[in-house]
Amino acid sequence: MKEHIFSAIRLTIVCLLFFAGVYTVIVLGAAQVSDNNGRGEVLVHNGKTYYANVGQKFTDDKYFYSRPSAVEYNAAGAGGSNKGPSNPDYLNTVQARIDTFLVHNPDVAKTEIPSDIVTASGSGLDPHISVQAAKVQVKRIAKIRGIAEANLQQLIISNTEQPLLGLFGTERVNVLKLNIALDNLK
Fold this sequence. Notes:
The chain is mainly α. It is 44% helix and 9% strand. The model has no long low-confidence stretch (mean pLDDT 88).
């Protein structure tokens, strides 16, 4: 046992130096060469500053709704609900979101509601919704804003982000960018 203790201490010191020092410097260096020095994508709209890479809460009927958050969009406490798909509290929460969505979108059938518009993401801060989640809200927004549905469909298409390298992930829409573009429509 004595012969292993010194090896274990050396390994601990090497890991401490690497993960607390070298790795940290590598990540910091990578952030410095990225856009905005690793501070995320900052958008200014109507005098307010927003981060496009963090989910924002949109519940006003004249906007596209954002994805629900298990942490109320608090970036300091990111995380999911940790409730399984058969948990009664979770099912009640999702059902309440479905009911609320249907009240505000009476032209939508329950079967047409994409899951991402009524379930929170793993971080609770996902700034994106699926293209289908955006399209299912078009009738409500067109009616409230007096905008042609075709114009809103085109707005969704122009704000759709493609999968990384065309392979990883799915098409998605950043809700903040979409709603800013919606406000800028004349």
